[in-house]
What does this fold into?
Amino acid sequence: MPHLGNAVRRPLAAERVVIVSASVGAGHDGAAAELERRLVAAGLTVDRLDLLDVLPARLGRFVRDGYHGLLVRAPWAYQRIYSSTERAGGGGRVAQALLRSAEERLLRALPADTGAVVSTYPGASRVLGNLRLDGRLTVPVLTYLTDFSVHPLWVADGVDVHLALHAVPAAQARAAGARDVRVCGPVADPRFHPVGPPERAAARARFGLPSTAALALLVAGSWGVGPVRQVARDLRDCGAAVPLVVCGRNETLADQLRADGIEHVHGWVDDMPGLMHAADVLIQNAGGLTSLEAFATGLPVASYGCIPGHGLTNAAALDEAGVAAWIRDPAQLKYVLGELIDGPRGLVQREAGLALFADEPLGPDRGPAAETAMICRAGVAPAAPLTAGSAPKPTARRTTRPTVRRLAATTALACAVWAGAVGTAVATTEAGPGLMHAIGQDLDLDDMGHAHHAGHGPHGGYTKGCHA
It folds into this structure.
């Protein structure tokens, strides 16, 4: 029989939703924050939890720092592990043991009157799905897929409903094994909305920007990762638009860009809606929340110089959905930007992006918040029947903590890849020594990233600032 200790059971009158995210960059948290705002407006009580805070032995810090270290020092390694876990359909034993270690802690953190739990992070979906499968969590579990591309790690057994932004990620989720997938559209802070010429002029004046020149807003998340310097130089040199760069909390990058002669450079920005109102096109490298906010603003989007892993797969999915151009070759940059800024391609993309929000926030029966509220109040049948055979053996749980301790030396590496948009990506244990060596080296990301996007192609978004 399933282990039912500390079970959280659905109350008769369910009005509380718990959202579980992770503070890796800020894209997942940004989506969680907007989802919370809408659920509260719908009359529900909302709690938010950070999975990184739930991990034992303060491993959350290693998750965050390790993931950041891979993106900065060894992006090729991140791409390798992302691809290998994509083919394998899941994470490795270290990641599984780590997630198992968080189950009881997360279960204890859920209030007794919880009516539904929503994950905006792949690792959280895995933990919640396991709790749901073995009967310790009897309330509905939803995963809100924050990206346009769906790595298999996003799809966890036991999750009742997967909420997708668009038909493209919905199809990917079903292909990965998700059964109940509902296309509900994206969420974005209402400050991201189209404006007219007067508001546009005021935004440019507020930021000290040229009043008439075409502006390309280049974003790279709260960490400022990727070949940002090279992309900024490419934008400047192609002549299609003046680069306007947001570096997040990467002050070193901001200083480097200013030294390169890039005139309009910002660090952490609280008024991202204003910058989007001032710009003519958005250049992004990860395909996360920033892209959705640009769509809501009516700003055409291009993917260029993208980070490995989810940056590349999101660029492909956005291109397939017809909402963002994917520029793989620097030689295409000037032409495509011209089409997006002044040509018919820009009009088509603006319409496609705004169409994602056509019924939001006025449509009460549409959107991930409305779907979540309905499921919280009405409930949903379990995602899979609970049988004795499907319950994990108690002995496996008793060995979790020693397993994590024995593998502590490799956990940081496992978490690093598993974090971010990938969630739990760590399957190629044979690559461990090489990855550890790479992380310790001082690699030139700009040169490497430029060579990558020139030859092959790419909680990120901004809410009350900027995030990855």
Observations:
- The longest helix spans residues 93-109.
